Amino acid sequence: MSTAVSTSRTQRDPALTGQTVVLLGGSAGIGLETARLARAEGADVILVGRNAERLERAARAVDAQSTAAFDATDVDALERFFEGQPKPVDHVLVTAGGPHYQPLAEMDFAEARRTVEEHLWLPLQLARIALEAVRPGGSLLFMGGTGGRRPAVGLTVGGTLTTGSPALVANLALEIAPIRVNLIAAGFVDTPLSASILGDQLEARRTELRETLPIGRVVGPEDVAALAVHLMTNTALTGATYDIDGGQQLLS
Ligand SMILES: NC(=O)c1ccc[n+]([C@@H]2O[C@H](COP(=O)([O-])OP(=O)(O)OC[C@H]3O[C@@H](n4cnc5c(N)ncnc54)[C@H](OP(=O)(O)O)[C@@H]3O)[C@@H](O)[C@H]2O)c1
Rounded CA gap, 234 and 232, in Å? Predict the structure, then answer.
C-alpha cells in the first residue's frame, strides 16, 4: 500500500511531450546536453551550429528532428531558418557565442564587435523573429556568465554585456509577452568551450574547483541543461536571470 502511494507520487509525464525545442548552438556543450534532456522529456529538437560535421554527429546522438548549419548571428540566415519551420516552435535556447577577455590596449575590435553581435544583437533580432516564430507562452532562453560581474582588466566588453544582459531579458520579456524570456548566468561549466580556453590548465582548474566550490564538484553541462528545461516548462518564470555556479561567486 505505502509502495503504491510513493510510486504514484514520483511518476510523472515527460514535461515537453509534443513540444519543439530549437538549440541555436546545439552541437556541443550546454546546447547539446539540453537537447539530450529535452528529448528525454519528450520534445522534438532542432539543432543549429556552424560546423556541419559536428552538427550531424550531435543530431545522431540525440535523434534530432532536423539540423541547420549556419552562423546564428547572420540575421538573414536566422530569419530564413525560422520561416522554414512548418509551425511556431515552443522554446529556443541560444548557446551560440562565447566570452570576451581582452585588455583595451590589446583589443581586437572586430572580435569585440562580434561578441556584441552574439550577446546583444542576436537576442534582439531573435526576439523580433520570435513574435511570429515562437508560440505564445513558449520561451526564449539566453546564456550569460557570472564571471564578468566584478570589474577587471580585460573584462570591459564582457563585463558590460554580462551586467547588461539581465536588463535585456527583463525588457524583452515585456516587449514580447506572453512569450517568456530568461537568462542563465553560469560560472565555470565543464564543456568543450572551457577546454579550448584553458588548454593544458583544464585539469588543474577542475581540481581547484572541486577543492574550493561549496558543492565540492565541478558544474557540468547537464546541470545547466536541467535548469534550462525547468525554465522552459515552468510557465511562471519570465524576465529573470538564474545563476548556476556551484557557489563560485561566494568565494573571494
Ligand atoms: N562553459 C562555460 O564555462 C560557460 C560559462 C558561462 C557562460 N557560458 C556561455 O554559454 C554558451 C555556451 O557555452 P558552451 O560552453 O556550451 O560552448 P561550446 O561547448 O563551445 O558549445 C557552443 C555551441 O554553439 C555553437 N555555436 C557557437 N557559435 C555559434 C554561432 N555563431 N552560430 C551557431 N552556432 C554557434 C557551437 O558549434 P559551432 O562552433 O560548430 O558553431 C556549439 O555547438 C556560450 O555563450 C558561453 O559563453 C559558458
Answer: 6
Question: Which CATH class name applies to 20-244?
Answer: alpha beta
Q: Is 95 in the pocket of ligand 1 (CB under 6 A)?
A: yes
Torsional sign, CA 226, 231, 232, 235: positive
Contacts 24+ apart (CB under 8 A), 208-213: 209/246, 209/248, 212/251, 213/246, 213/247, 213/248, 213/251
Contact in structure between 116 and 161 (CB atoms under 8 Å): yes
Task: From 50, 76, 113, give the residue whose CB has the most ligand 1 atoms within 8 Å, as the site to mutate.
Answer: 50
| 207, 168 Cβ separation under 8 angstroms | no
Q: What predicted TM-score, i.e. pTM, was given to this entire model?
A: 0.96
Domain boundaries, the chain: 20-244
Residue 50 CA: nearest ligand 1 atom is 41
Query: Among 98, 100, 96, which residue's Cα sits nearest to residue 156?
Result: 100
Ligand 1 atom at minimal distance to the Cα of residue 31: 16
pLDDT tens for 142-181 read 999 999 999 999 999 999 999 999 999 999 999 999 999 9
Residue pLDDT, tens place only, 17-39:
999 999 999 999 999 999 999 99
Q: Is the CB of 96 under 6 A from ligand 1?
A: yes
Considering only CA atoms, which residue is closest to atom 23 of ligand 1? 25
Give dist(CA 55, CA 53) in Å, integer: 5
Distance (Å) from CA 54 to ligand 1 centroid: 13
Q: Ligand 1 atom 35: the closest Cα is on which residue?
A: 96
Cβ of residue 62 lying under 6 Å from some atom of ligand 1: no
